[in-house]
Amino acid sequence: MSFFEHLTELRKRLIYSVVAVLVGTIIGLTVAKKVYLVLVLPIVAAFHQAHLDETLISTSPAGPLNLILKLAVYIGFVLAFPVVLYQVWMFIAPGLYKHERRAVSMFILSSVTLFLTGIAFCYFVLLPYSLNFLVGFELPYFKPMISINEYWDLVLILMLGLGLVFQTPILIFFLALFGIVTPGFLWKNFRYAILVIAIVAAVVSPTPDALTMIVFMAPMIALYAVGIGVAAVVVRRKRRADSVARQGAD
Known about the structure:
This protein has 250 residues and is mainly alpha-helical. The protein folds into two domains: 1-159, no CATH class; 167-250, no CATH class. It is 80% helix and 0% strand. It is built from ten helices and no strands. Helix 1 packs antiparallel against helix 3 (63-92). The mean pLDDT is 83.
């Protein structure tokens, strides 16, 4: 395709993705209150452990409504995530080999699974520990009064962020697929990757203690290692496919 044909195709895929998010957001509005009752449990447990009132406060009359709308948008993004991935795949598929295009179902399944795993890791591991640390931090003449919007900004950003961080093997898959990185390059720069991961963990970690950073870093390092394995498989299959293509040409 020409440059302008690529732009037209990109616009079409973006439109489909936006429509999917809008439809997901409409669905999210119908279930937002039920999701709220689930996502509020970590902070309620932290309040209970610290022997505090198990309530969040609102500093604005529109605070609860804004929360529901914001939560609906996040739900919409999660519901539309497989559709968005499919649009990404359809945009890049013309540049792939025939056997690579057949991997669309595995790509979408793996990416969605990793995304949901990142959200689950945040909810069941990172949030309980971080909130217990933050809420239980004591100072004289101090009583925490946490705003509902501040809490949800923290929770939703962390969940979405970790969901995207868990896409690391998928990113490495595409980088290896287009020859940008190799398993040898990734392994050779493993220590630099750990340094970058440590910096990212220090910036985005909700608490300053080292244990939270380690909790943040552990899955990221594991995902990087999985990415090296993914890159090795991709490179091996590409070489095999190139070899078969050359033999067919001969």
